[in-house]
Structure formats: structure tokens, C-alpha cells
Amino acid sequence: MPLYEHVFISRQDLSSTQAEGLIEHFGTVLSDNGGNVIDSEYWGVKTMAYKINKNRKGHYAFLKTDAPAPAVQEMERLMRLHDDVMRILTIKVDEHAEGPSVQMQKRDERAERRERR
Predict the structure, then answer these.
(1) Exposure of 41 by Cβ count < 10 A (0-12 exposed, 13-18 middle, 19+ buried)?
(2) Does residue 107 have a pLDDT over 60?
(3) Is residue 6 a contact partner of residue 62, using CB atoms and an 8 Å limit?
(4) Mean pLDDT for the chain overall
(5) Distance CA 6, CA 65 (A)
(6) CB contact at 8 A, 69 and 41
(7) How far is it, in rounded angstroms, from Cα 36 to Cα 32?
(8) Whether this model's pTM surpasses 0.90
């Protein structure tokens, strides 16, 4: 099955448990349609570059999945219909990176960054 990575932003006035509940909800939608959630991460509340639906901040979530295309389409359809989800991004990848995403790594672990002057 193809591998996908999904990032979605939910409204800022949700609690963190509600935002994590959305991750579980959309994971069950995938598994009900024959897919599999390999890994999920809750990135927390982050400030966005511009306002979306009068919101300056949002709860960011990240999913690594292994699912057929119809399951991904159904999950995206339900995300678009959900009132709490503001934006979604789905990317098809060849393989998933090992370990946590860049957002979850500590700054000390990011050795590839150059030093500031």
C-alpha cells in the first residue's frame, strides 16, 4: 500500500485533549477503510504566518499512514466537513523517516543548522 504523511491544523479554542481526540478519530476512519496509522504526533499550538478563519494560532497534528487511496480520500473528505479542522495537507512519500519528525526534535539534536552570528 502507498505511504502518506498528513498534517492538519485544528482551531485554537479546542483543548489539547480534544485536538488529540481528532487524531484518534481520523486514525479510526483510516483503519475502518483498510488503512493503518504507523505513527502520529501532536505538535501543539503554534502561531501561523497568516490568519485562517480569524484564527492566529492552531493545533498542529501529524500522521504517518499506510493506506489505500480510497481510505485517504474518505479521511480527507471527513476532515473538510469537520468544523474544527481548518487546513489539511497530504503528501505521498516513498518511505517514512525513522524517529520523530523535525518539529518534535530538540534544538540540540538539529546539528545540521548553522550557527547564528
Answers:
(1) middle
(2) no
(3) yes
(4) 87
(5) 8
(6) no
(7) 9
(8) no
